[in-house]
Amino acid sequence: MSQVLREHAFGMLTAGMFTRAVARECNGQKHPFTEVIKANIGDSHAMGQKPITFLRQVVALCSFPELLNSPSFPEDAKQRARRILQGCGGQSLGSYSASQGVDCIRQDVAVYIEQRDKGVPADWDNIYLTTGASDGIVSILKMLVSGQGRSRSGVMIPIPQYPLYSAAISELEAVQINYYLDEDNCWALDINELHRAYQAAKEHCHPRVICIINPGNPTGQVQSRKCIEDVLHFAYEENLFVMSDEVYQDNVYSPDLQFHSFKKVLYEMGPEYFNTVELASFHSTSKGYSGECGFRGGYMEVLNLDLEVKAQLVKLLSVRLCPPVSGQAAMDVIVNPPLPHEPSYLQFHKEKSAVLGALAEKAQVTEQTLNTVPGIKCNPVQGAMYAFPRIFIPPRAVEEAKSLGMSPDMMYCLRLLEETGICLVPGSGFGQREGTYHFRMTILPTTEKLKVLLEKLRDFHIKFLKEYASLEEPKR
Amino acid sequence: MSQVLREHAFGMLTAGMFTRAVARECNGQKHPFTEVIKANIGDSHAMGQKPITFLRQVVALCSFPELLNSPSFPEDAKQRARRILQGCGGQSLGSYSASQGVDCIRQDVAVYIEQRDKGVPADWDNIYLTTGASDGIVSILKMLVSGQGRSRSGVMIPIPQYPLYSAAISELEAVQINYYLDEDNCWALDINELHRAYQAAKEHCHPRVICIINPGNPTGQVQSRKCIEDVLHFAYEENLFVMSDEVYQDNVYSPDLQFHSFKKVLYEMGPEYFNTVELASFHSTSKGYSGECGFRGGYMEVLNLDLEVKAQLVKLLSVRLCPPVSGQAAMDVIVNPPLPHEPSYLQFHKEKSAVLGALAEKAQVTEQTLNTVPGIKCNPVQGAMYAFPRIFIPPRAVEEAKSLGMSPDMMYCLRLLEETGICLVPGSGFGQREGTYHFRMTILPTTEKLKVLLEKLRDFHIKFLKEYASLEEPKR
User: Fold this and answer.
1) CB within 8 A of A316, min separation 6: which ones?
2) What cofactor does this one take (chains A, B) (predicted)?
3) Peptide linkage before B271 cis (omega within 30 of 0)
4) How confident is the model at residue A316, as a pLDDT?
5) Which of B100-104, B242-246, B467-471 has the lowest mean pLDDT?
6) How would you label A185-196 residue by residue, b for 16+ Cβ within 10 Å and e otherwise?
7) A132 CB contacts (<8 Å, ≥6 apart)?
8) d(CA B361, CA B77)
């Protein structure tokens, strides 16, 4: 097996490097496929999604303000750009912003949150613009676990989880506390499992934080309001800091489900909760309908942060000076899109609906097709951008993988990649219950390509099952 | 004294926050000034410097590729933009790049370095694009000190230094090893002082890294070729990793001085050095003539990195996914500016020369004016963007500051800010020899404003000296 494919599967290579390397290899060595189909990273534009015109118009206007005189740009885009530039030192994207972000953009974020949450008050003093959501997540974790003595702070994370969390926890030398999502129940968060994990962890560390990803990555579930309330009640009782990763808040596909923000639910639980539970929630330009990963835009909102901790946070953030200002501008458009009476509204609305409509369709196609394959079982993709199906791996394949020193789903994904050119991520990278195997695939390829992918995957899986079922007992 | 001013002086507030807060205060409370003049941060555009047209054209074209059809953009800007977009997934700035950065931009950086260093070979595999230079500096430090056991790794840094270094070292729980620059010799790096610091530190830690800032921040000196050779020889002998912060490489004002890159000097010392000394050098979009801080663009070049360490670095960088792609595009323009035969050359050259010419003039005005003030002594501002003059603070003022629990130069700067609206940074934030006092001021205000600043500063200083000289002995 080639080094490039291997390294990639082990997460050592990223998007561009991988494509280049595989292309190089395809020229040199022979692979039994002509095209690599990447369904491993939530990288919408790389998979062919087009940018939202209005967002890019605003960023271009901010970048080159001479365009404000151009008749080919709509007035609402110009108005957004002028406002952002007025918030920048020297009216330039090239100035450092405050490390919390440009004031007027933070104000727009607060207004957006109030509207999203049907009037729950949002104070822009609690809004921090970030370099993507990851930056905010790592900063908050850093602050909390250093504040409490590194070796003793425990952080509760879902399993499966987006590996940013486990990586950050390990780097900060905090204790990772796993709570397992309920695969048999559409990956729902089970409050009893939270209690179990908490009680077990209390023996050897000081649980301080609980992280939730809603809608889920890699699991695609959308949390119910009741479940969020349970989690918040639990956090209140146990005095846990709640980190709610809500970067997929616009990505809900099941018509009977709805995104509820942790903050809104907390508010509705009454002032005893709303004024005490420490909460940080995260959003980003990278997902949703815009898919602007490269701009590294994002924000976080914090609630009930201790004043001293807040001062520490500002200090911590000031070391990286400021988040990229063009990413801040992109974030502004997402929280402050064209209104119905504005000239760009129709086109914006059309583009947004097209992206979200296509994703909803692909979510369904993916789930349905995967469930026709013997030995694959896929929960509904209710939200986010991923399916995380369970795959049956025959015992002989499991043994072979073990003898090769790799996890069985890793071997599965590597073989899939080598034989079909389809690039997925093994479930073991996200965590899974002992003895179960999964992969994560994005629903981002175009519908056409996605169908090809699913067909190839089905054929591969059936062949894989056959191969390992028909093998004789290895000679001893 | 107001909380805002205090907090700012203590480094708790950053650019935008400060301006807003002071404006608010100016409305409410009464200050004996009508305008705050900020000379505390190297934030060119905020101080009125205009963006380089060509750079912004390329970024705008990349952001909104429809503009590639517009006749109002020059062909060379379009060609740059097309090339960058071809290097992006889905030809969009909105895709994640590889965590090392967009390939073709890294190639352009390598070509730039080869030209800058008169043919010394540069391999683009050694180039990493970063989120400003800070990101690269922190990443390299993180990798090195964790690789060697945190509590034992020592990092040699100049004093005075840009406080990013001390902050990162402290956060990583490494040992800070101070080597003092020679103020009496234009802040030159003294090789004997390096030996002294190293020998003393060896007693209690394992010195692993030496950091150099050239041209100097906050000290503005430009290092001689001979001195660089001495440092590299020292690093070779003592097996130290060299981190050379060269973000001011375009900011050299003394006509008889020249920037020498550490890499070029290392090359000229012969293969025994060039193939063994571990080196990382850093550059950025934020300084030079472009002053594009907000884009958070930068790169680093590494040499002789252990392969395993390199793999670790890639892993570390992949956690932050990728540097902002529009910052990468800005970096590309800086390393790949218009050539003499291209349509944008004349305007680009004119704008670049105007910025650098004005800075050179202001460097001279600052030094000369400060040296006319009794009790202030300023070395020539040979490069970078700062003066770091030594100020005489009368013993009675020193005592008063101590009784207030603050450093004397902090008290000085706070009073300056309160009485004149001039915002500087106390030398104690950068480190200085015991019993000496300094401040750092940028040379970034417009020439006109800079002259006002220097005049007000002179008046303040004279008044300050008088006040503390004429005080009676405090009653006991």
Assistant:
1) A139, A142, A143
2) pyridoxal 5'-phosphate
3) no
4) 85
5) B467-471
6) ebbbbbbebbee
7) A284, A285, A286, A293, A296, A297, A298, A327, B320, B321
8) 30
Residues of chain A with CATH 3.40.640.10: 53-335
CA dist A447 and A445 (Å) reads 6
The architecture of the domain spanning B53-335 is 3-Layer(aba) Sandwich (3.40)
Assess whether pLDDT exceeds 50 at residue B203: yes
Is the CB of A107 inside 8 Å of chain B's CB atoms?
no
- Of the candidates A70, A330, A346, the one whose C-alpha atom is nearest the C-alpha of residue B63 is A330
Residue B137's identity, in one-letter code, is I
d(CA A413, CA A262): 35
Contacts of B372 (CB under 8 A, 6+ apart): B458
Closest CB from A11, A43, A94 relative to B96: A43
Q: Place A416 in a pLDDT band, splitting at 50, 70 and 90.
A: very high
Strand B127-131 and strand B153-159: pairing? unpaired
Residues of chain A neighbouring B36 (CB-CB closer than 8 A) = none
Pick the closest to residue A458 from A392, A369, A380 (CA basis).
A369
Q: What residues of chain A lie within 8 A of the CB of B324, using their CB?
A: 131, 294-296, 324, 326-327
Query: Which residue spans of chain A are classified as CATH 3.90.1150.10?
Result: 3-49+349-470
Q: Which CATH architecture has domain B3-49+349-470?
A: Alpha-Beta Complex (3.90)
The residues near B250 (Cβ < 8 Å, ≥ 6 apart) are: B259, B287, B288, B289, B356
The residue among B344, B322, B250, B339 whose CA lies nearest residue B292 is B250
ipTM for the predicted complex comes to 0.91
Residue type, A386: Y
**What pLDDT score does A475 carry?**
45
Q: Residue B209, SS3?
A: strand
